Amino acid sequence: MDNWVVAMMLGASLLLGGVALIAFLWGLKNGQFDDEEKFLNAVKFDNEEDLNDAINQEKKKEELRKKVYKPE
């Protein structure tokens, strides 16, 4: 490739990377990625039955892992 093609590709890559970085920093500054109520709302709607189901599923997964795992 010619030098001007490499220089143009490098310039375009740096420009696009700079734009992406500025957009990311702008989003951080404006709270775009903040989700303060995510965990609070999750706790509100969980009940004891759902938690017990999750525990039972984890136990079943562990039992399956023990059955399937056979070291040689």
UniProtKB/TrEMBL annotation:
The chain crosses the membrane at residues 6-28. InterPro entries: Cyt_oxidase_maturation_cbb3 (IPR004714). Keywords: Membrane, Transmembrane, Transmembrane helix. This is Cbb3-type cytochrome oxidase assembly protein CcoS. It comes from Sulfurimonas marina.
